[in-house]
Amino acid sequence: MKTRHYIFAALMFLTMPLYADVTGLVLDETGEPVIGASILIEGTTTGTITDLDGNFTIDATDGQMLVISYMGYATQTVAASNNLKVTLLPDTKVIEEVVVIGYGASKKSNISGSVEMVKADDLPKAASASVGEMLRGRTSGMFIQSNSASPGASQSITIRGGLSGQKPLVVIDGVPQLQTGSLSSGTGYSGSDKDNSLINISPDDIESINILKDASAASIYGSDASGGVILITTKRGKQGKPEVSYSGSVAFQTMKDKPEFLDAKGFMTEQNKVFDELGRADEQFYTQEQIDNYVGKGTDWMKKVTRMGLVNEHNLSVNGGSENTKYLFSVGIYDHKGIAKNNDMQRITGRVNLDQNFGKYVRAGINTSFTSLKYNDVPLGDSRQSDAALIYSAMTFNPTVPVYNLDGTYADNPNRPNIYPNPVSLLDITDQSYSRDVFLTGYLEIKPIQDLTIRATGGIDMKFAGADQYIPTTTLKGASVNGQASKQTSNNKLGIINATATYAHNWNGEHDLSVMAGWEWKKNMWDGHGVVTSDFPTDNALMNNIGTAEMENPNIWSSKGSSQMASFIGRASYTALNRYIVTFNIRVDGSSNFSPQHQWGAFPGVSAAWRISEEPWMQKATWLSELKLRGGYGQTGNAGSLTGIRTIYGISRGSYVFDGTLSNGINLSKLGNPDLKWETLSDANIAIDFGFFKGRLTGTLEFYQRDRTDVIMSKSLMSYNEINTIDYNSQAAYRSRGVELTLHTVNVDTKLFGWTSDVCFSYYRNRTVSRDPDFLPAPYQDMVEDWGNVYGYKTNGLVQPGQDYPHLPNSKPGSINYLDINGFEYEADGKTPRRDAEGRYVLSGKPDGKLDQADIVKLGNNTPIPFSFNNTFRIWDFDLNIYIYGSLNGYKLNDVLYQSSYGIADLVYGVNALTQVRNRWTYQNQEGTLPGVAEANSGINPANSDFFYEKAWFLRLDNISLGYNFPTRWFKGYVKSARIYAAVRNVAVMTPYKGMDPETGNGIGAYPNQMSAAIGLSFKF
Amino acid sequence: MKKSIIFATILALTVSSCQLTREDYTEISPDNFLKTENDLRLAVNALMYEFCTGYWNGEAIYGAGYDGYQVISDMTTDVLWSCWGWESDVEYYQQWQDNSTSSISGYFYRAFSHYQFLSKARNTIRRFEQCEAPEEARLLYMAEVHALRGWMGLYLYDMFGPVPVATDAQLDDALTYNYIGRLTEEQYDSVMTQDLTFAIDHLPETAVRGRMTKGIAMTLLLKYRMMQGRFKEAEQLCRDIIALGVYSLQPDYTRIFTMDNLGNSEIILCVPCNSSASWTANYMTAEVLPADMPWTTQSLGWGGYVMPWDFYGTFETGDLRLGCVYTDYTTATGKYMDKSNSQQLKYGALPLKYGKDQTMTGAQAGNDIVVYRYADILLSLAECIARNKNTGSDPEAEDCLNQVRRRAGLGSIHGWTKKDFLHAILVERGHEFYMEGLRRQDLIRFSKYVEYANNRIQKANSEGGKYYNVNDSHNRFPIPQEYIDESKSAITQNPGY
């Protein structure tokens, strides 16, 4: 290869015109030609770029200095001479990443707290609307779980076990994002809970994401940071000619892991049997002859309400600029047609980032982004009977019924008419919601003297959300109220202003000091209104002529409020000899959530690091490329969401009817606690960063302990009180302990083939370590208790004929055999249960013929053990990514089976059940392992036992993508890079859990999981 | 640029020096409340929420669900049942054994939780005593609150017997956990008597539907005295109520409950309904109405509750009170339904007592829930006289009973023995007040509540049922274990649980 290039280059030289003053060749460190490197004559604007073979020609005179630069490589300045050959070396400063740490940035090597960095380029983009979805499993210590598989569904993101119970703070370009709740779309039905945080930013706009995990790093965000901090840096304009980037993809989605319900014949057969088992054979709807002669499988309701999902995505951005003005514009569209019919989500994003220098001392910039989200929702949820939503009813609706009657109306379930909505009729419901997010920030940066930077940032985040719903009279629910409409809006606004002064100086490369002080003020404002009403003359106008409703007492509401916070921030960071690092953070926050005397709280953080690998005595160890020992301690606060410092009255709407008319009332609604104060999270963190064999194996191992004290909780007062709760600082203490491991290995790195792997693993346990003095534990509960424990009765199969248990007086054969394993001890009177010093009942350890709280034991724990394994292969111009993530622990109710099996008697009402219920116990099938019809009368809910619980660890093969990077020489320099890829998402799940999905599937009505196949294209020119 | 530094500094200092405030316009500060007569009325209105019909929430006691006051009081007796099995069978056969594991223990929990109302009402009264509103208004609304406290006190006593009542000092110190036990019968009696006497003394004789009146307070006290077995005082109360001259029997039994006759002179206490709000609608019709039975244009039936055939069979022929009880119907598609082919009718007849409300939307009807009415006063007086005079043939008592019987199209009763007369009253009360939630206490007063349950159990068991017999402990419901635990066992369980 090399030789060929040289020959080619040599040929080029021979054919060069002689008037060209200077010619040259630019190569990279491997000897490959560098295409598009820029050559500029120093001090002039004359310049050129290298061609496909790395050659350039420039009109320069000997002795002029040429500045040769290329992204990712160190800029070289060389004297002009003919036949110049320049070898560019990778810029170690670029590889030495700069990490955003809140109100500033730091070299990665100088970081002493626990900060994790993710580059957006490393994330698979196909069929993901939210960067949250893409980040799943990518970093250790951050656990992201989708709450539903529906388009744009919310995710719960917890950093380090989520001990604080708060969501992570999302900071975009230095300005915190507004945290708002989801607007539920109506009162009749609701769609899925929406992601309203990370969904507002287009993943394509993101340059990098930094996660502040421990309090020594996060304390700079003080009381907002108790859930951790996610710092997002968006892409910015770069100096140079305009660069246009496009990326787009299309993905097809199909349903996955659909539970199998009975078809028509099976349904009729099982229904008849259940009638038999209930002793009501005389009520059977079908004769055996009817069943035998039934043709076909009946209506596949799931098929009627689902379709192939389709995700379309296009992003376009332009960036460029001069030395003084840099810009980036981007637009993106993301369109998701969900696999449930009528279920769509559409997002349009736009962004302008502008940086402008005003002379030598002043710089300013604007970041603006706009996000418009539009949803068409379908009713979701696990409600039963007349409230049954789309998926629930499609799963359970009588399969012998056709969709329509002969007259075109929706067919009803003849087994129990007028109760269960026809699934297809639910598609007539209009449910539209939207959210518009305007995020506007600006900064002004002044450098009055060298080393001192003063920066002021102002920003505003405005969210306008609305939700419209109409339930037409063609649905059961709509018919019963003659059409129901709702319209709601909610506006949220966060205004922020902050100013920081940073002094940074480096003495002889040995002492590096950075001191920052600043101040911040925030105001949060909200208002909203809505109306729900019914009884419409026609369905035609949907919710768009709401005044025509004839309902007597429509539900109308509005609200408005605001809160404030002010803060002082400071940080000092000192690095000596490039290897001894110490950082000190402090933030003093004042919040209007508290009374004036308790408004202010101080949250310090300190951390230190020792880069052992930089010690002179370690230089001989060439196998070691990095070894850094870090430790930190810090505090963050939490103002909580409970704001009960004032005793207040509230209006209860229509609290009673007088003479047929609803009248309002006013009652005491909250008991104020003026002593409420900040709760505190204290973190201790110890970590090792390591790198071996020139970076072939790098990683981080972290240990942490987090304590949550003065927890703001709602205290339950004795139940006789007028108000039963008060917000207070509990004496309970929570603790989280965990370990996190991140590994990055470069397994193979040759010119043609490369293979890198990333492994993330975390283990943690949250635990209640002490309790309020008034706390009365349940008999099965320990005073020190792990979070995520699942308690319940033990079971041992089913009750068989002839077995009669005194503790199960209502359990006939076929019901679950709950175990009586323990009993209470009694005082001398033999009646009063004995209590220990903590007030808890004392257990006798012996069965007592009663099934009660004494028999409840810990069945399992569902704290996840997040794990991920990412592999990237590079073969010539192809790249291949295989990504697996999951949790190594899980304990979960198999909700579909539980509902189907426990509700087996509902078959007689025409409610369909899983095919698995064939395996239920009956007198004819005494081998059956699922409970029979008798269980429903046992008086015990099987969800309170281990019967339907299953281990739910899982590993999901989440992404396989294969990309091809077109060699740029194909495009003769017009295109800088081009890539085409194909990806499959959610390929397979390995789990012992037999319910719908160990992550997203809760209940029969859960949005079905899907597998996506995508192709995408991206290029830059 | 220096200017901007100075500006930022000044801004920092100004903002931080001022107090940070939080605003919420939906909150009302105590500084602005309880100043006017209207404020007092609003405070009373809010208290009344707990007496609503809200079907799903345990906050309201007149719901039509299994835990509704009237439903649990009838469904644990011979007059009401449901074809839904499950908890309705637990109630019908009284199959609750203890306070924690029974499938209906949640009902007891919600019922007991209303003992908090006594504190709410007490605090409201104390706030009224101290507020600036005019004296006359304060007395009137305080009397209303006293009546409501008596009403809820009666409900709790009916369900559980005496419950704990916190003292003013304990209420003022909400943050301290006081482990208080139940009052004794005497102490509870004193609370009830004080509340209701105050109410009787200060309430007007008439008011719009929903507001408290003298007659209501007297009736509540009457019901309490009947439960206590203090028939002398009860007799006097009956006479006092009659003497008010406000109430009279309606000529047509079925029209006591209908939409076109709301607030008629027979009704003493009702929970007024409004079908437009889910928590104020009357669901008694929906609970009974089969889904496929043609009713009103927008109605939706749930098809569950029935009057068991055994009880239906005890009515004398020609009893007009069966006018709103259906034994069969024809569906919209023309199918004839009776006990041979309807799952619901197999269990019993359909007591659609409230009649058709043409504005019924879905399950929500607008008829007022009838709580206490004049016929009860007449029958109570008849019973008290018989008990107090120890005779079955007192003419006044006979007349009271016969007024009710005549209205039902039945013949009069004369010259019976005390035992037969009292039994006739019990039978009459069953036929008169089915679906009105009086049956449980009536049977308990006649010591028949458990006996009748065991009769039902015996019959069911002879047909393959597996129900266990119950005993007298069932005359009171069990105190939920949660409350016993919370009080560190200061609250004692009712005997037998």
Tell me what the structure shows.
The complex is a heterodimer of chains A (1021) and B (497). Chain A is mainly beta and 1021 residues long. Chain A has a domain at 2-91: Sandwich (Immunoglobulin-like), CATH 2.60.40. Chain A has ten helices and 49 strands. Chain A has a 22-stranded antiparallel beta barrel. The relative contact order of chain A is 0.11. The model of chain A is unreliable at 1-20 (pLDDT under 50). Chain B is mainly alpha-helical and 497 residues long. Chain B folds into three domains: 31-175 and 184-247, Serine Threonine Protein Phosphatase 5, Tetratricopeptide repeat (Alpha Horseshoe); 255-271 and 280-370, no CATH class; 371-456, Serine Threonine Protein Phosphatase 5, Tetratricopeptide repeat, CATH 1.25.40. Helix content of chain B is 46%, strand content 6%. Chain B is built from 20 helices and nine strands. Chain B has helices at 2-17, 37-48, 69-75, 86-92, 105-113, 115-130, 135-160, 168-172, 185-202, 214-228, 231-243, 284-288, 309-312, 343-347, 374-389, 395-407, 418-433, 439-445, 449-462, 481-486, and strands at 23-24, 81-82, 267-271, 305-308, 325-326, 329-330, 336-337, 348-351, 369-373. In chain B, the strands form three sheets. A four-stranded antiparallel sheet of chain B has the order 2-4-8-5. Mean pLDDT of chain B is 91; it is low at 1-8 and 10-17. At the A-B interface, α9, β25, β26, β30 and β31 of A face α1, β1, α2, α4 and α6 of B.
